[in-house]
Amino acid sequence: MKSMNVSFRQLKLFLALAETGSVTGAARVMHITQPTASMQLKDLSTAIGLPLFEIIAKKVYLTALGNELAETARRMTVEWEAFEQHVSSIKGHTKGSLKIAVVSTAKYFIPKILGSFCEKYPEIDISLEVLNRDGIIKRLEQNMDDIYIMSMPPLNIEIEDEIFMPNPLVIIAAKNHPLSNQKNLDLHQLKNERFILRELGSGTRMAANIQFKKKKFTPNIRLELGSNESIKQAVAAGLGIGLVSIHALNDYQGFDDIAILNIEDFPIHSNWHIVRSVGKKLTPIAKIFHDHLLEQAK
Q1: Under CATH, domain 169-269 is a member of which superfamily?
Q2: 3-class DSSP assignment, residue 124
Q3: I need a surface site. Which of 3, 17, 24, 69 has the fewest CB within 10 A?
Q4: Are residues 5 and 47 in contact, defined by beta-carbon separation less than 8 angstroms?
Q5: Environment class of residue 121 by beta-carbon count within 10 Å: exposed (0-12), middle (13-18) or buried (19+)?
């Protein structure tokens, strides 16, 4: 059988195509022109001898073989980057890249941690993805990043999981709400209140639903919103009471308009987790960042 003449650069280009979903996006990632990218991808398909993708209405769709090649290219790229970082560490340098993906609520504390990390290691290039839980799990399944941070790790995927910081969830109301100054409220006293909650599938909503089920409480849901900002603004406007991570209140400029209700068995005790694919070794830089996370969490 004739061997396939494929370069590592072509594989990286194809991986960029898989991750961006377009030839133009892949060209931008690889810092080449779109015609050059098209030509190299055509050469790659010719070398493989089978279709790797098709373009329908300007959108790229990988074939089954194309998906296999993308996963192979991803594993090779990860291994090579780890090797480069290992060589750099032997030379006494801290250079390389770090890919982090976090759920949206983590954006309230991750920038501060990244800031102190970048101050110590200015030569490390960091890629940060902030998505909802479903988006993070999709990236986790495809092994696209070094480290993932979420509050409710998936149960159906084999992962390495480590708790590193508490994530208390609180119920909030407008400052002028009749319950805002009361102490030791029972959750069932809120049965007539209109709740504003995160969307189904979010880590915050999952933790809330577990607590509500445990307390045999069914919230009267008025709104389901996709961001903590929307919930805080809706609560401040008197549209109902909400449930958010206490981290979402740390830098909220309208905090004077909101009160945390004093309810028995609240806050809900949730945690932040450091997650990665099972068996995935941390690169030297990812290990440094992992240790920095634990240090900052203290």
Answers
A1: Periplasmic binding protein-like II (3.40.190.10)
A2: strand
A3: 3
A4: yes
A5: middle
Residue 183, classed as helix, strand or coil, is coil
Q: How confident is the model at residue 1 (pLDDT cuts 50, 70, 90)?
A: very low
Distance CA 296, CA 238 (A): 36
Note the pLDDT tens digit of each residue in 197-235: 999 888 899 999 999 999 999 999 999 998 888 999 999
What is the number of other CB atoms lying within 10 angstroms of the CB of residue 122? 9
Architecture of domain 8-69: Orthogonal Bundle (1.10)
pLDDT score, position 217: 93
Question: Do the Cβ atoms of 70 and 18 come closer than 8 Å?
Answer: yes
Q: Where are the domains of the chain?
A: 8-69, 94-166+272-297, 169-269
Same fold, 94-166+272-297 and 169-269: yes
- Relative to beta strand 271-277, strand 147-150 is antiparallel
Write out the two tokens for 83: 């090797």
